[in-house]
Design goal:
Blueprint: H1 2-16, E1 20-22, E2 31-33, E3 53-57, E4 63-67, H2 68-72
Parallel strand pairs: 1-2
Antiparallel strand pairs: 3-4
Length: 90
């Protein structure tokens, strides 16, 4: 009985504190990717189904999903890479 209790305790604690790192040995979020990333499908929130969303990085390089209005009316907007005008195609 003691072994079963100890095993359940260990397994439950691993689930609560699990973090996965790709190309990093010290992940700081649930999924921590050091390198390029591709998102093939993004689930839209029903709350903002008609709003245009912007995926951005915060100051700690954590992905965030915001509405365009939140980005436009924020006090500071940081641009990390060049901006491409897509109206004429790539």
């Amino acid at each position: 009985m003691k072994k079963i209790t100890l095993t359940l305790l260990v397994l439950s604690s691993i689930k609560l504190a699990s973090q996965v790192g790709i190309s990093t040995t010290t992940p700081t979020k649930t999924l921590d990717v050091n390198g390029g990333m591709r998102v093939r499908t993004m689930v839209s929130s029903p709350q903002f189904s008609n709003a245009v969303s912007v995926v951005s990085l915060d100051a700690n390089d954590v992905l965030q999903n915001s509405t365009t209005l939140n980005v436009l009316f924020s006090s500071t907007v940081y641009v990390k890479q060049r901006i491409i005008n897509l109206s004429h195609g790539l």
